[in-house]
């Protein structure tokens, strides 16, 4: 038996915890994306998401509200993916947050 399943569970919980921010607007974008899209992402995009959630809330807010874009191309790509997902998905998933 390998130890990857418990490791993946711990990693998922860590990602969820770090996706919960001090701003409701960020929670509404990051958590549904994590829950519904993260597993389908390419490895590079998963890494970009992990890097994204390390950023300060004010930067995340500006990026996810399209007031600015990250300079880093991989962060810019994942931000666009999150925004596109939020704009093209129904709001039912947000009711439980």
What does it look like?
The chain has helices at 4-19, 24-36, 43-52, 57-64, 73-88. The protein is mainly α and 97 residues long. α2 packs across α5 and α3 crosses α5. The radius of gyration is 13 Å and the shape is globular. The N and C termini lie far apart (35 Å).
CATH architecture: Orthogonal Bundle
Under CATH, the topology can be stated as DNA polymerase, domain 1
Q: What is the global morphology?
A: globular
* CATH class descriptor name: Mainly Alpha
Largest sheet: none
SSE run: HHHHH
Protein name: FAD assembly factor SdhE
Keywords: Chaperone, Cytoplasm
Subcellular location: Cytoplasm
GO cellular component, one term: cytoplasm
What's the arrangement of secondary structure elements?
Layout: H1 4-19, H2 24-36, H3 43-52, H4 57-64, H5 73-88
Helix pairs in contact: 2-5, 3-5
What distinguishing features does this structure have?
SdhE_FAD_assembly_factor; 0% strand; 97 residues; 5 helices; cytoplasm; DNA polymerase, domain 1; mainly alpha
Question: In brief, what are we looking at here?
Answer:
Helices cover 65% and strands 0% of the residues. With 97 residues, it is an all-alpha fold.
């Amino acid at each position: 038996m390998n130890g990857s399943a418990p490791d993946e569970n711990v990693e998922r919980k860590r990602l969820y915890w770090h996706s919960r921010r001090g701003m409701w607007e960020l929670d509404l974008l990051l958590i549904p994306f994590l829950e519904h899209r993260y597993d389908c992402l390419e490895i590079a995009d998963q890494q970009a998401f992990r890097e994204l959630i390390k950023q300060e809330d004010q930067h995340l807010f500006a990026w996810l509200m399209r007031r600015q874009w990250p300079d880093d191309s991989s962060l810019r790509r994942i931000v666009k993916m999150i925004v596109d997902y939020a704009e093209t998905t129904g709001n039912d998933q947000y009711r439980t947050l």
